[in-house]
From TrEMBL:
This is Eclosion hormone. The lineage of its organism: Eukaryota, Metazoa, Ecdysozoa, Arthropoda, Hexapoda. Pfam families: Eclosion. GO terms for molecular function: ecdysis-triggering hormone activity. It comes from Laodelphax striatellus. Coiled coil: none annotated.
């Protein structure tokens, strides 16, 4: 059976891993939202910035918009008539 010290070390390591993953996820969302803001500045009324930011939160920053990559921002572009 594992000693009490070993169990505490394992739990401390797991806690550290969970905290690190939460920080990384938060950073990804922040980068995603900053990219949305940059695209909004570049494209103005042609870019749906709020929709982009909502997608950042919904997908936890996994889909990063790149203002120079039309495929990554296509869902957030609109035609003005």
């Amino acid at each position: 059976m594992a000693s009490n010290g070993s169990v505490k070390m394992l739990l401390a390591g797991l806690l550290l891993l969970v905290v690190a993953l939460a920080v990384v996820e938060g950073n990804n969302i922040g980068v995603c939202i900053r990219n949305c803001a940059q695209c909004k500045k570049m494209f103005g009324a042609y870019f749906e910035g709020q929709l982009c930011a909502d997608a950042c939160v919904k997908f936890k920053g996994k889909l990063l918009p790149d203002c120079e990559d039309v495929a990554s921002i296509a869902p957030f572009l609109n035609k003005l008539e």
